């Protein structure tokens, strides 16, 4: 676009001088050329504008659309509808057969169920999916629920017999009764998008990324409730078992349990920094379980005996919104 401006300059004196002040020319690669001339006087103002026509842009050479009117009408015949119904029945029978295949690997079965649910077709296979998952659980695929119940049963036996186990016997059972392994097993399927066979196998074996956060969960719980449980006569606790095994006082046993928590954190951080075979979202979830344990049991047993601070925390997270910071 080229532009020139003609204007009338009025100096301080009464003498009028007409002069031209050309502006720099700006050239752009555009098919439109605009020339603007402006003349200014004390009597009138006039503008003239001219445009040159440009060549219109050619449309793309798209292929003809196969979904024309006649084609759409041809699919609405009775014969075509019956063909589609037969195909749908065959596909549904094939999917049902794969879901009920007792020899199928769990990972393959889980991916199939996930795809069916994502397609919005889970309602057609509800009973088949339920039987498949029950079959896997009953075959010992995941023992998290059974391990939790057995751990509760063992603690009930110790309480009933009023016996104090050794620290190793107690802790080998107690980290499972903390419910940490069960929570993380379910969390894995909630946060991981691409499930891998290697991860499933290590999940069943309670990999360190599952056991160590559960250790911290149990130790923090026992530290917060030790004094109250000892006063009630309960014998199964990390502090009381450590006192009996080592023959030391409650204060020294408490300090030893705190040192165990620190050592477990070091191992867990090494697992995170060194690279884990599990997906990063699940690793973060497992570590957050340990962090949550410190938060819950920092000022006492906020689970068994919640105080006003615990109530405020729950309300701030669930009920009351977080107000924006005002300066």
TrEMBL record:
Keyword Magnesium assigned: yes
Assigned keywords, A-Z: Coiled coil, Magnesium
Annotated ranges, domain Terpene synthase N-terminal: 67-139
Pfam families, sorted: Terpene_syn_C_2, Terpene_synth
Residues in coiled coil: 74-105
InterPro entries on file: Isoprenoid_synthase_dom_sf, Terpene_synth_N, Terpene_synth_N_sf, Terpene_synthase-like, Terpenoid_cyclase/PrenylTrfase
Domain of life the protein comes from: Eukaryota
Keyword Repressor set for record: no
Gene3D superfamilies associated with the record: Farnesyl Diphosphate Synthase, Terpene synthase, N-terminal domain
Gene Ontology annotations of biological process type: terpenoid biosynthetic process
GO molecular function: terpene synthase activity
Required co-factors: Mg(2+)
Descriptive protein name: Terpene synthase N-terminal domain-containing protein
Organism: Populus deltoides
Lineage: Eukaryota, Viridiplantae, Streptophyta, Embryophyta, Tracheophyta
């Amino acid at each position: 676009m080229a532009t020139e401006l003609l204007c009338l300059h009025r100096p301080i004196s009464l003498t009028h001088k007409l002069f031209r002040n050309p502006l720099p020319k700006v050239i752009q690669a555009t098919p439109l050329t605009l020339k603007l001339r402006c003349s200014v006087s004390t009597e009138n103002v006039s503008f003239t504008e001219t445009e040159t026509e440009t060549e219109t842009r050619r449309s793309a050479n798209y292929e003809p659309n196969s979904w024309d009117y006649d084609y759409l009408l041809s699919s609405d015949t009775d014969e075509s509808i019956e063909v589609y119904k037969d195909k749908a029945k065959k596909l549904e029978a094939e999917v049902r057969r794969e879901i009920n295949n007792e020899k199928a690997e769990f990972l393959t079965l889980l991916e199939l169920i996930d795809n069916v649910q994502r397609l919005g077709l889970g309602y057609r296979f509800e009973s088949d999916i339920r039987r498949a998952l029950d079959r896997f659980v009953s075959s010992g695929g995941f023992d998290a629920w059974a391990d939790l119940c057995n751990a509760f049963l063992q603690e009930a036996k110790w309480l009933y017999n009023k016996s104090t186990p050794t620290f190793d016997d107690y802790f080998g059972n107690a980290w499972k009764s903390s419910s940490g392994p069960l929570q993380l097993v379910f969390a894995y399927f909630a946060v991981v998008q691409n499930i891998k066979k290697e991860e499933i196998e290590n999940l069943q074996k309670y990999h360190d990324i599952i056991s160590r956060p559960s250790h911290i969960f149990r130790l923090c719980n026992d530290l917060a409730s030790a004094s109250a449980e000892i006063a009630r006569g309960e014998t199964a606790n990390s502090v009381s078992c450590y006192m009996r095994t080592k023959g030391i006082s409650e204060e020294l046993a408490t300090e030893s349990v705190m040192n165990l928590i620190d050592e477990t954190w070091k191992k867990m951080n090494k697992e995170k920094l060194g690279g884990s075979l599990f997906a990063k979202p699940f690793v973060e979830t497992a570590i957050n379980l340990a962090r949550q344990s410190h938060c819950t049991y920092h000022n006492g047993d906020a689970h068994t005996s919640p105080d006003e601070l615990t109530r405020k925390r729950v309300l701030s997270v669930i009920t009351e919104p977080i107000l924006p910071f005002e300066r």
